[in-house]
Amino acid sequence: VTPTAEPTTSTGKQGQTQTGKPEFTEGNSRVPMNDDVPATFDDGSTTKTVDGVGTYTVAADGTVTFVPEKSFTGTGTGVTVKRVDKNGTPVTATYTPTVTPVTPTATPAESTGPQGLVQTGTVTFTEGDEVAPINKDSITLLDENGQPAASVEAKSPAGDVIGTFTVDKETGVVT
Asked: How far apart are CA 125 and CA 104, in angstroms?
């Protein structure tokens, strides 16, 4: 008498917790799955963390909860879940999550004014989805090489400094 199992998958947005439960079927009605023995991963653990991907946790009934790392998108490495029937015969199936990217948008700002006076403008950042709000601490000026900078000098075509840009991370106001 050999039990069988069907793998499962799930799909969710970036940063969103997902769950999935492989289907385990008894090999014979007289030898059901043993609900007194909790499901584990194939190595006997109940939690697995995959660097750069996220953390998987399996419940006693075989339900897997996947918490992706905030920056992870794509198909996860997946895990193998193991259960046993009343005879102690093991059976395994996989759970594989897919994380779809959430992409924020930005609206640029422009300003005009008399020469020599300070000008400001507010760049508007909009979250791609409520599961991934804008992290105001990540609002940063980038220099001409794309590197973070506290301030950025604006230069004329001849290379002369004609102004300096700074940003207020709390408000998004560029001065």
From this structure: 7
